[in-house]
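tool=predict chain=A
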Amino acid sequence: MSNFKGSMVAIATPMNEDGSLDFESLEKLVEFHIENSTDVIISVGTTGESATLDFNEHSRVIKTTIDLVKGRIPVIAGTGANSTSEAIELTESAKKNGADGCLLVTPYYNKPTQEGLYQHYKKIADHVSIPQILYNVPGRTSVDMEPQTVYRLSTHENIVGIKEASGNKNRSTELMNLCSDNIQIFTGDDKTSMSDLIDGFSGNISVTANIAPKQMHMMCKHAMEGDLKKASELNKQIDILHDVLFCESNPIPVKWCLNRMGLIKKGIRLPLTWLDKKYHEQLNQALLDSGVINE
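tool=predict ok
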């Protein structure tokens, strides 16, 4: 098993207003997370707009993030694709660039069978010797990787975990019972993360941690230690963020908040657009109520 644990931020990819990559702001974001005790950075996942970066940009953002982190915390690269050969290529590139592990989303749009999912992940794990985390998010991909398929994959030496983001408590329990002896189980749903961590999950691959890294780190720490009282107090502060950060498609609200906090510019790529003005006050109030900003 890997040593990935705690608050694992699915970091946003900063962009200039014309949509070009903004590496100056990426450096600010990395330092923001280091200073606020984020445990692991996930580079170019869903929140990092992986779907709109070309191969060279994808690899460059991952490499730059690794270079900026300088080994202070682990960096996991998002390298999933709906083409197995492309996922292998991205995973090989991430390994070459020094990633500590890779996160691979289930193939989206083409709706593989459970056997297809097994063969997809097995082939990647056979080809690239790097710690790999499976990623199940049926709300995004329209395919649901069943616990029995995860169990079949969990004995592969290069597969070390799964990010389960269905938000289904029964699914979480089933995965823990079936697979936790072989791989780590990570929650990918901020709303249920505290209870998942209390139940024995290893960490939270988080959207909310982009905005409230210190609070998310401390909540995860207390939950994993079994301190429900302290974890609940912290989760209550940031629970509003778990909801409003999805008022429009992720990462639209996250990027608006990071811009409001002075960390990034107003850059996002089509087909995503900047946050609709009707949500600005709601998000601003949530930042105030959660203590992220004070004016």
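The mean pLDDT is 96. The radius of gyration is 18 Å.
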